[in-house]
Amino acid sequence: MICTYLKPKIFQENSQIFEAGRPLHSMIYIVSGYVRISDPREAPSQIETLEKGTFVGEQLLEWATRTKTFTDQPDSEKTVRCPTKVEAFVLSVEDLKTLASKGILPKNSAGEA
Question: pTM higher than 0.85 for the full model?
Answer without folding.
Answer: no
